[in-house]
Structure formats: structure tokens, C-alpha cells
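ASSEMBLY PREDICTION REQUEST
Request ID: AP-0331
Submitted by: J.K., bench scientist
Number of chains: two
Total residues: 972
Priority: normal
Notes: Please return the full assembly, not individual chains.
Input sequences:
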Amino acid sequence: MSTLIQRIGLAVFLAGFALFVGTLTLSQYRLTDSILTQNVKKEHVVAIRSATASMQGKLYPASFGFVRDFRAAVNGLNDGYKQRKEWDKVIYDNYAFSVTKAASTGFFPANSQLFFWLSLLLCMGGLLLYMLPNRRQFPGASTVLTDQPQIQNNGIFRNPATNGGWIGILVGSFLIGFYIILYFYPEYLTNWVLLFDPLSRALNGGPASQWFVYGSLYTLVILVMGVRMLIKYRHNRYQQLRTVSVMFFQTAFAFLLPELMSLFNQPAQDLKNIWPLDYSFYFDYRIDQKIQAGTFGVFLLVWGTALWLIGVPVLTYFFGKRWYCSWVCGCGGLAETLGDPYRQLSDKRLGAWKIERVLVHSVLVFAVVMTALVLYTYGTGQSTVLGFLDSYSVRSTYGFAIGSVFAGVVGTGFYPLMGNRVWCRFGCPLAAYLGLVQRFKSRFRITTNGGQCISCGNCSTYCEMGIDVRWYAQRGQDIVRSSCVGCGICSAVCPRGVLNLENTSEPSRVTSPNPILLGNDGIRLRGL
Amino acid sequence: MAQAGNNNIVIIGNGIAGITTARHVRQQSETVRITVISAESEHFYSRTALMYIYMGHMKYEHTKPYEDWFWKKNRIDLIRATVERVNTDVKRLWLTDGTMLAYDVLVIATGSKSALFGWPGQELTGVQGLYGLPDLAMMEEQTKGIDRAVVVGGGLIGVELAEMLHSRHIDVTMLVRDTHYWRSTLPVAEGDLIGRHIRRHGVDLRLETELKEILADDTGRVRAVVTTAGEEIACQFVGLGVGVTPNVEFLKTSEIALGKGVSVNEYFETNVPDVYAIGDCNEFSQPLFGTDGAPRKAIEQIWYTGRMHGETLAQTLCGNRTAYQPGVFFNSAKFFDIEYQTYGTVNAQLADDEQTFYWEHPNGEQCLRINYKADGESVAGIHAFGLRLRHAVCERWIRERRPLNYVLSQLGQADFNPEFSERYAGVVSDQVKSQKSWLQRLFS
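STATUS: Completed
Returned structure:
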């Protein structure tokens, strides 16, 4: 049951959100000669100008018609080249995005900042209102905070937004659609890019790309939903600290610092993004860019290598993989903030764990092999390895299948249906690597408190990684699992104080079940 | 290896006691046939999580500790049926549908049912206890769209019922007979602490108030309750949380000796050979003591007790006749937001030879009590509200009869609170003179 303030907040948010999505339809489009000369390479201008002659000066009311005609023109041009076997003339550059953006005209482009601030303020203000703790008048008592500073999971499985119901399906569909358009059809998002142009110019001196829009939205979502986490877990300092941590690393390291680096004409890099999650770290163009940038570039190369070579094993030995996955990582940051309302939807079945182990380690192997091939090509100039593997096609396959589809479309799009760690659990190669260290050489474990478990299942239900925590807790065994990201929610939701995240001496991890739990003194099992 | 002649074990009841027996027997014996009969549910689920289903924290399937394939894989046959009667002479039992089952060994683990005290109107629609899945389904049905409820009882089920109803924004009045909450178990300070907490949530807690009768409307549904003081409180639902009693009615026609529960010795043996009773439904005919010398109840209706009974009986059934020997007592609960853990003996009333150490946080929501023998200061019991203690450490101190000052100086070892938890510097240390606060030691 929501309060009046919550309903107002929700209405304000929905209005802002509708406005934001609606801006995508607000432009008209007109192709002019100057747009072509500014956005198309010199060698292509003449051909494209003649192919798009029928579009010139025509006012399109929506992006669909404009993009369709423009694409048809370029495709027709290419078909002709191919028929005449003029391979060197074929246009591989995708001009649809930049031309559509530049062709945008009318009231919206002229007033984009009005829409920017209005939709931003309505969305954020509405959400914040919605998140404020509720108060309610009870008979015979003064006004009472109904959201006490405690676990607030009431009604989660009765709410179609959080139980995989129709609102979840709707949100999931939106997210999946968003990622598909973002990765594969960005020309339809040009109005959003216009919204963010001034912000981009202020930060890095250049116009926005769809990736700048995505990075900005990503950061905003982590900040606003981070505030939600801070309110929800205001009784739990572990949750508060790690939430502030992911908010900080996203804002400073993932968003602001790279923009500043490019403002100062340095290679832009997210200093906390670690290979192999940052799968293009050793791609030729990124290595070259760093080497050309001199000392700072070399520092970036050394830093990025030291992170996975030294940082990961050392920090994971002392703290478990949580130091990265739920304190630093951007994917983890989104999962722990935007994704928190969906954590209970992860699949806890043994079968899901089996699939997870095969998938996530396969992706790790894929990432390592792909990187090795890329470096081989970089060192030798040979793109073909073993006579049949082409390092360029391997890396573009990885980029498409893992980088875009798995990490983006599936990884985030399925939050409201499969829980908030789909990517981290099934796909992230860095998580697999961190997990191997955590499983075999780490002081981290979730300690089970003697015989106090009542098998209620709250821990398993709210484990975003789909670990059946209860399976261990009810056997008196510590939870030592490669996938555990140490979010600490199992400990928070446990009603009997059974679970605690600890880093103490490695041999003290209880990794086999206690056949007879504490409190039963009659039984002395042989061999125990 | 199962004992000769124990080749067909039938367990009535698929709660924690019965299922623990089945699992532990299977771990030790590949060959014995194990059948578990339950009227309540197809599969084992955690009864302690019933409230979370109602509150929307979980769905029923989340409360099942083992996936459904587990039973077949471990060859534990599950039968969904009600046992009508047992004939121990021929070692057979009959289900209500007429089916007959033979057994070599019978384990009775039928648990409890809600206690009723014969109040006028207790049979009305909208009046019920809370013990199992049928109760939960009924409660779901009877509380749809209502806005006023009364909960009777100042124990664990009472506060659960209040929290459940409260989570659905139903106004709750709680009638508690005693002068403070859970007086049978808690000292005054802790009872008051929980009472304050319950009220802070907006629950109308009425102490020293008893139920006299329940009034019906024209349709036979509850419309109000009347207290012994004569006050009428309007409500659309009455939750009865006044305790549970062994569920052994169906054995009355059998040869099995019953007291309040099934009478057993420390081997869980009934008066009939090859018939055992464990968990909530049994009653020890001889006084029972923990390893620390503390007396245990003849009927102990606790999750952990059911589990320990099951672990122990499985030994006997597999040829290693083992007496039940509980160790240092422990238990836990949660009252709205306040967790409670107890170790050893902390009685509501201090025994003559005992003294007590009590610390309460100024927020009035967290406390720690340590009871110790006046003579020699050995610690007999520790309990905490709103703080988490390490089971193994508390158990060891009590078993080793450590003196109070040792326990206080070592409290950090028992700290099981999450990392970065608030430190209460100066608060505990005021009482524990020169000692550093145990929460202060967390990161030292």
C-alpha cells in the first residue's frame, strides 16, 4: 500500500520518464548539403550527395522515414559498386548516426536544454519522493514510521514489479529494447544525444556520442538508486559504505575522470575497469593510443596490467572478490542499485549453478584466447593463427556476442526477470577469475553461526548470485563459493543472526558440513 | 548399516524432526526403505518461514530447504496422506483413504497443533491460530480487505501474528495476560524492551489483558472481542497465539502410551517396541538435563530440538543405540526488528544462587544479559537482543563454566555483528570498568 507522497512521486517520475522517452519523437529532419560535407568523409561526399538528392531539402516528420531513406540511398550506392566489382569504393562507414543527428531540426533541437532539465528533474525528484520512508497514523499511537530502519521486504512477492509479474516484464522489455537500439541502431537515439551535447562539451570539450549518453544515464541511475539503497539500508553500515563506494567509483572513475583525460588530450580510460572485463584493453588501437600518449599512456598500460596481475589476486586473497564486485565495479554498481529490487528473482536451482559454471568459465577462456590472438597479431602482424583462426573476426565475435549482447542486452535487460546479476553470474570473465581466487586462495567466507539456522530461506531467496546459502547454513558449513560477490544481504536478511561476512585466517574456513550441529552432545561420530 | 529388522522405516510427519531422521538414516544406510507420510504438504518446508510467505518476503517454494528431486534421488518415499490409526500389534497403520501400510520401525514426528482454551466464540469465522500451511491459507483468505485485528498471546506466535498483520497495514491490538511481554521466558527489562518496540510499530499492546469471549456478527464471522475487564474491541480477525500442544490425537486408539505428548525415554522409545517419537509431539517421562547440568523441558517445541532429536534417533535406527544428550541450550527468535539469541540458562526469574549482569543501549532496543552463579561467578546463561553472538564461543564459555569477568574481557570473541557495525564505546565500558568495549574491539 503506497502513501499519497509515494503516489505523487511515482506520477512525477512517470511524467518525467514519458517526457524523456518522448523527446525521441520530437524532432523533424532535413538533409542539407552542409550536413553531408561536415559528417561524411571527403571521398564519399560526392557519391552520397547524388544518391541522396531526392532527400535534400525534404522535411521528414520522424526519424524512421529519414533513416530508412538515407540507408536505402547508401545501400543502393554500395549495391552498384558491388555489381560493378568496384570493391575499393564500397562505403563501410556508418554515417546514419551522425547525419541523422545533424539533420535534426525544428523546435526540439533549439530548445533541447529545456527538455533536458525538465525530464531530469521530474525523473529524479519523482523517484526521490517515492523512496522517502513512509509515515502512517495508527489508532492509539502517534504517527509511526512504517518503513522502520530495518529489512523492508514486505510485499516484494506480491508486487508485479518485483515478483516477475507484468510490470517486471514491461520494464525488462523496455531495457532490452533500449540496449538493442543503443548497440545496433543508435541513429534512433540522436535526440537524446542532442540533450546531452552541452554536458559533454562542458566536460570534455566535444559533442556527445551515444556512449556519452549511456555513461551519463548509467551514472545518474546509480546515484539515484544508490540513494534508494542508502535509505533502505540506513540501519546497516556495511550496506551504506559499499553503496557509497560504488556511487563514488562510478561517478569519479567511470564517468568524470575519462572525460577529463580526453579534455587534456590523453587516452581516456576507466582506471578501475579491469581486463578481461575491459576486453578491449589489449586491442591494437588502444595500445597504440597509449604508447603515442607518452609517459601517461605507458602508466595507463602498466596500471591496467598490474590490476589484473597483482591487484586481483592480492586484494581477493585478503577481502574476497567483493572488494571489486560489490564495492568498485560499474556493472556491480548498477546491479546493486538499479538491480536491488530484483535480486530475489535469481534462479537458485542446482541446475542453474551447473549452467553458470560452464558459461562463466567458458567466457573467461574465450576472453583469454581472444586477447592472446589479438596480441599475437599485434606482435607479428599476422592475423591468421594456426591456419584458420582470424584474430580480427574472433575479436569482433567477442565484442558482439559477449560485449554487447551478453553484457548489455541480456545482462541488464533481464534484471526484472532473472535477477540483477545475470551478467556477473553467467558471463563476466573477470568475475570468473576473481571467483577462482576467492574459492581456492582467500581469507573470505560467510561464516555460519553454529546451529542457529532455521532453514527459513531468506538468505537464499535474496542472494542475487543464486547461491543456495541455506544449503550451507543448515549444515553448519561456511559459504565458500566462487560466485559470492559479498553483497552482505544474506547476513542482513537473516532473522536469526546466522550469517556473517568475515576475512580471517584461511584455514579457519569450514568447508565441509558438520554432520551433527552444535548443541547436540549425545553423538560422537567416528572420525570426527 | 541398518539394524536387522529395521528394513522398512515409516515416519509420520515431514517436519524438521522427521526429515532430519530420514536424511541421517539415508546417509548411514543405503538399503533401508524410508517412507515419510505428511498430511500437510507434499514436501518438507520450513515452518519458521510461514510468516514470511504472508508478508511477501518469500513464496512457498522458497521455504523448501531441498529441491523436489532431492527425495527421489535419496530414495525417501513421500506420501501425502493423513494417518487414521496405528495398530502396533501387527505393525501396521491405516490412512484415512483406507490404505494400509506395514512398517518395521515407526517414527512419530507429528509436531504440534495450536492450543485453544475453550473461549466462547473461538470457532467463529475469522478466528484461528497459526501453525501450518492450512492456517496460512485460511489467514490469507480471512484477512483480505480487513483493517482491524486482535492478536491474543504474548509469546512467539503472538508477536509473529502481529507482525504479519501489521505488514499488511492491518491495525492490531495485542492482548497479553502478563505484566510484560513473554513473561514466562523474559526478565522484566527485556519484556519491557520488546513491549516498547512492539508499540513503536503502532501495535496497540494491552498488557494484563485477557480474552473473555469473541463476538459474532449475523453471518457467524467475528465482529469483536471482549476482554476480562469487559472492554469490547471491534475487529474482523482474531489470531490466537497462546502456544501449541502435541498433535497426537490419532494415537489415542493405539497401544502407545500418551501423556500430553507421546511418552518416551531418552532413546525416544515409546512403551511399544520399534515405535519412536521425536520433535514437538513427544514428552520425556523422566527429567532431562543438558550437558551443562541445566534442566530441559519435558516437551520442548523448538526447531533446533526437533533437529537434534532426528540426528540422535537416526543413530539408534542405524544400529548405534544413542541416548539424547542435549548440550548447552540455545534458541533464537525475532520480534519485529529485534533479533534475540539465547545460550545456556537465562530464566525469567533469577535463581537464588544466581546474579546478573545487564547492559542496555541508550536507544532502548539492544541489550545483553549474562547470568552467573553467585558462588564462583561461573556463567550460566547469556542472551542478547539486537546483537548477534557467536554460538560456538558462548557455548564453550558456559560449558567450561567461565567466570563473568573472563567472559566480559573476552566478549569480542563472541561478536557476530556485521562488519562496520556501530561501536558502543563507553557505554558497555562504564559497566565493565577498565575493559574495552567489545564492540570497540571489533577493529582493534
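REVIEWER COMMENTS: Chain A has 23 helices and nine strands.
SIGN-OFF: pending second reviewer
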